[in-house]
From TrEMBL:
Belongs to the peptidase S41A family. Keywords: Hydrolase, Protease, Serine protease, Signal. GO terms for biological process: proteolysis; signal transduction. GO terms for molecular function: serine-type endopeptidase activity. This is Carboxy terminal-processing peptidase. It comes from Saccharophagus degradans.
Length: 703
């Protein structure tokens, strides 16, 4: 199954404005320029991609599988006989593409469009037929993820499959408060709009899907952009763009949230989470939520963006849910400025029952730099390194005992800044190695100055710490300069560049990052010295969740200093950490939440019985109340007595229109951050361990 397509691909489950009469479908015939473009794409993949992969019969077979699954990931439209018929060309696509021959691939799409049109027309007729009954008291269920199931073999089998799918849509709308007739009207409109949309697709759409089904076999970050996509493509709605501040990608027929831009509206609002799938977008508080399942990514982004201070409503399938029910999230659009991403500081005051420790905290949401001002030699230009340097001075003036550099949710940014930031913590030395496909290794990214901060250090990471964050954390870990605490990081260790093709552009992976230890950051990411949990499904988020991701590997290490003997302290620190969290109500509450999430993710089928679904929802709420009461009791607070009391408290904690948090201050609120507090305790344990064992700094780190 093809997943995680980070380009604008076309699928069929999508909705635009309602049109009374479907347009005449354009003829789907490849153009001469497209034939020339596929030859160019093949040549560039062969010559420039990091993965040395032959374009042969084996890849041809995988391409056809990729192409079919990108069109019909849920196995809802094609018949088994269609797929078998397509296979007669399965060993020939490598030869076809070298010759610029696209007709066979277009024939697959023409069959697909015919099946979609026929199926949607039948579904619309079914909803209008008063003799077709939808019994929500029957004890039936439906499997949501059909990607591993066979395609239907007969029309009767397909009809039953679509009856059940339609019934699920109707039931979800009923559970959301609609009458059956209102639900039928909504689903009918959805199907009509989907029909209208599939009939609008042209040869450029077909070509883009086809080529990306090939490029994604090299790695998930290698994509072809059509001319239209090249003009509109920008999935990172940040900095000068007004929107919600989210990084999005296409995955199957959905638009998936990869990460939230720190300081952006979605991050501040707090309800949208990584791995959530956006299925609808509404404008303002009253506008209709339009189904965007199957839309091209650039079209979804265009609907989500909008003027500052306007409202967008997102209908999402939450990643932690498994029953197909959606939630609507209201977010006020804003412009994500540099100040929103700027480093901020705070001080944790923690006691080990013998003395009070002051732990400095620096939160760095991104590796940023104002290139325009830096290049014009403006002495006041902003950068992550400059800001962190200033905050280090301030914290040391306040007499902190140690520093936590918080890189949670930091998705990367400037490689130069990752290198420069390392200068603040280590003396002269290599920070990162970069390897190209021909085996050339560049080691010119060096820390050049003496370290500014030389005291106890923890780097706090999570699954959403990626790219430049991993380079920095890897260097700190390899030099034994500080402890890495948190969750295994994202694993984005590749470098891409964009090049023109005959028509459109191609984004190619051309090199990989490696640590001074010789380990790549690709796929595996950074493994923390002490692990902390995170309420994110590791199978859904991270490089390892991508199909065809480049593997982890190693090259020769670079000779480098070791500033402390951290290996000696880690067993002691781990044991102390485990003993402490065993009695921490907040920490165990997080573990209980993760257990519930994992239990829900294991469910493969969803009931179509209305009473059972209502009971399941209430049971989930009761389960949530039980673990919340467990936490409250552990903290000496009164537990909730009824579900109604618990629900009221939840609504109060998560208002629909959450207030916007000011990001202009350099001081951060540390209250209630369970993982940060535990990281502070780990740092105190480390300081005590150093003192008790009279650990000496290495001679090359002496003052």
């Amino acid at each position: 199954m093809i997943k995680n397509i980070a380009v604008s691909l076309v699928f069929i489950f999508s909705v635009t404005c309602a049109v009374a009469k479907p347009p005449e479908a354009p003829k789907l015939i490849p153009t001469k320029v497209q034939s020339q473009t596929i030859v160019d794409v093949i040549a560039q993949l062969n010559a420039r991609h990091y993965r040395n992969q032959a374009i042969d019969d084996s890849l041809s077979t995988r391409f056809l599988e990729s192409y079919i699954d990108s069109l019909d990931p849920a196995h809802m439209f094609f018949y088994t006989k269609d797929v078998e018929n397509f296979k007669k060309h399965s060993l020939k696509y490598d030869d076809y593409f070298r010759k610029g021959k696209l007709e066979e691939g277009f024939e697959v799409y023409r069959t697909y469009r015919a099946r979609v049109v026929s199926r949607l027309e039948s579904a619309i007729e079914m909803l209008a037929d008063e003799n077709v009954k939808f019994d929500f008291n029957a004890k039936d269920e439906i499997i949501l993820d059909r990607s591993e199931l066979p395609w239907p073999t007969t029309q009767a089998e397909a009809d039953q499959l679509w009856y059940m799918r339609t019934k699920l849509s109707l039931l979800n709308l009923k559970l959301a408060g609609k009458t059956l007739e209102e639900a039928k009207e909504t689903v009918t409109k959805r199907y009509k709009n989907q029909l209208n949309r599939i009939l609008q697709q042209d040869s450029a759409d077909v070509f883009e899907i086809m080529v990306n089904s090939l490029t994604l076999l090299f790695d998930p970050h290698t994509n072809y952009w059509s001319p239209r996509t090249s003009e509109n493509f920008n999935i990172n709605m940040s900095l000068s763009l007004e929107g919600i501040g989210a990084v999005l990608q296409s995955e199957d027929e959905f638009t998936k949230v990869v990460s939230l831009v720190p300081g952006g509206p979605a991050s501040k609002q707090g309800q949208l989470k990584p791995a959530d799938r956006i299925v609808g977008v509404g404008q303002g508080d009253e506008g209709e939520v339009v189904d965007v399942t199957g839309w091209r990514l650039d079209e979804v982004v265009d609907r989500i963006r909008g003027p500052k201070n306007t409202v967008v409503r997102l209908e999402v399938l939450p990643a932690k849910e498994s029953n197909g029910e959606t939630a609507v999230i209201r977010i006020k659009r804003d412009e994500v400025k540099l100040e929103d991403q700027a480093a901020k500081k705070g001080v944790l005051e923690l006691s080990d029952e013998e003395r009070l420790y002051k732990i400095g905290v620096i939160n760095l949401p991104a590796f940023y730099i104002n290139f325009d001002k830096a290049n014009s030699r403006d002495p006041d230009y902003r950068s992550s390194t400059r800001d962190v340097s200033r905050l280090l001075d301030e914290l040391q003036a306040e007499g902190v005992d140690g520093i936590i550099l918080d890189l949670r949710n930091n998705g990367g940014g400037s490689l130069r800044e990752a290198t420069m930031l390392t200068d603040l913590f280590i003396d002269h030395g290599t920070v990162v190695q970069i390897r190209t496909p021909d085996g050339y290794i560049a080691r010119h990214n060096h820390a050049r100055l003496r370290a500014k901060y030389r005291g106890p250090l923890i780097v706090l990471v999570n699954r959403l710490s990626a790219s430049a964050s991993e380079i920095f954390a890897g260097a700190i870990q390899d030099y034994d300069r500080g402890l890495i605490v948190g969750t295994q990081t994202f694993g984005k260790g590749t470098v891409q560049s964009v090049a023109p093709t005959v028509e459109g552009k191609i984004k190619l992976t051309e090199s990989k990052f490696y640590r001074v230890s010789g380990d790549s950051t690709q796929h595996r990411g950074i493994i923390p010295d002490i692990e902390l949990p995170m309420l994110v499904d590791m199978k859904e988020v991270g490089e390892s969740a991508y199909d065809n991701a480049l593997p982890w590997d190693t090259i020769h290490p670079v000779p480098h200093a070791k500033y402390f003997d951290l290996d000696a302290s880690i067993p002691y620190l781990t044991e102390a950490h485990k003993k402490r969290i065993a009695h921490d109500p907040d920490f165990n509450y997080l573990l209980d939440q993760i257990a519930v999430m994992e239990e829900n993710k294991r469910k493969k089928a969803v009931s179509l019985n209305e009473k059972q679904r209502i009971a399941e929802k209430e049971n989930l709420e009761k389960q949530a109340m039980v673990i919340e009461n467990k936490r409250r009791t552990g903290k000496g607070q009164d537990p909730y007595k009824t579900l109604a009391e618990y629900r009221a408290a939840q609504e109060e904690e998560n208002p629909e229109d959450a207030p916007v948090v000011s990001s202009r201050e350099t001081v951060i609120d540390l209250d209630g951050d369970t993982l940060l507090n535990e990281s502070g305790n780990i740092l105190i344990d480390y300081i005590r361990f150093q003192t008790t064992n009279a650990q000496k700094q290495a001679s090359n780190f002496s003052k």
